[in-house]
User: Fold these one by one.
Assistant:
Number 1:
Amino acid sequence: MEYYLIKADTDYTDVPVVESWFDRIDVRDMKRARASRLPERELLFLQGNPHTTFTDILFRPFLLVSEKMQEVITLYEPDTIFKEIVLLDTVNQLAELYFCPVLHKVDCLTEQSEFNLDRSVIKKAIINVSKTGDKSVFLLAGVQGFQAVGRLDFIESLLRRDIRGLTLTPIETIDEVMAMEWK
């Protein structure tokens, strides 16, 4: 199986910039066990920018996806919890509906993976596929921020729908269960 690290496309320079969200959303609640503490719908304000490009995926201040991407996630991971987030630019009268997916966190990075000091940047990702189960899209456990991973079938489905705003980095995989059986 092939997996890809899903990142923001830095070619999009005018993505929405959310202001003053800290007192409205607690990122510690973006776990399946605590998702009920998150509001079902929240309105967040944007910095005024008449050139804002509403891409299909945002990673700041936390993971947000468009309705089109939410539909694909639901196809592959039907038990995903979503919270509605309305992004509003009052200066330019722009608004867009996003969804905050509360994805499963999977502890599958191997010791051979490489990071920066605070584990907010993955320099080299190697995952143990025997730990991913049947998850087609998930967040990596043991790292800072929202590091999303997609299995090839999920990624192909996104690409067929012309999802904008993401880049893909192939991830090396190992299967420790299979390796143990060969010994």
Number 2:
Amino acid sequence: MDKNTTSELAASIRSIPDYPKPGIIFRDITTLLGNPRAFRRAVDELVQPYAGTKIDKIAGMEARGFILGGAVAHQLSSGFVPIRKKGKLPHETVRIAYSLEYGVDEMEMHRDAVQPGEKVILVDDLIATGGTAVGATKLLRQIGAEVVGACFVIDLPDLGGRKKLEELGVVVHTLVEFSGH
């Protein structure tokens, strides 16, 4: 991706200081999603590394990963799998606990959403500490999926999430980096 595209995408993301608490800069992609050109460009860039590759499923993490993941799945002619917070899915699920910056939570997916050996890409808006993405990777692998990659619009490299995923052997693709929290 060229620098001009990176700059355009970064400019389409709203930064909100001191949200959700003092010292944090929240990176809000709703402005990117509301801009047809930026949204299309972001999806095209998320898809690009996998063009021509057979990907069975895209796993989107709640909630913005649903928006981006659905668009990526459509472009790759893949199925879409929502990974949700505990208690939100109506059928038989598999669940995993994962670490958050300040505690532990659980996520789940339908047990029959991915078959053993299927190639899956994780999609979300942002990778920070990596807790959610690492948890989703472990959940997918628990049911036999092959996690072939993960893509995010935003990387906050100072928080180390990308490195944690790469240590699990997941190839990570991001579009924009912001320093800090």
Number 3:
Amino acid sequence: MTEFSFMSIGDSVMERTAGFCFWDEKENRAEFNEISNGEEGCVSYTGYCLDVTATTMTWLVTGWTEKGFLRQTKMKDTFTKTGIDRTVEHLKGEKSPKVIVEWKKLNVEKSKPDHPDQPGN
């Protein structure tokens, strides 16, 4: 996940986001934490992987502000050759003003593997 950066399109808000993904040994799943600063103020997100296949990851994501619960969504990421396509299902709370539809791979060059130092590349 550290090789991707996201792109919003349309009438989306400007914001700065930082976060990280990690493996939760106790829950046996991928999780992430993220902080976004933008039009909605400071929003803290936590999420975890609900389902994974060879080409997709589905996440349950919950966001809060200093005022409390903000929203919960289910996101499905589909891995492609150029990045990740994303669909978002709003579950509860306020709908998000941002629309992330695609994550682009960073440092992609034709004919070069993503991880040349790993076996199989």
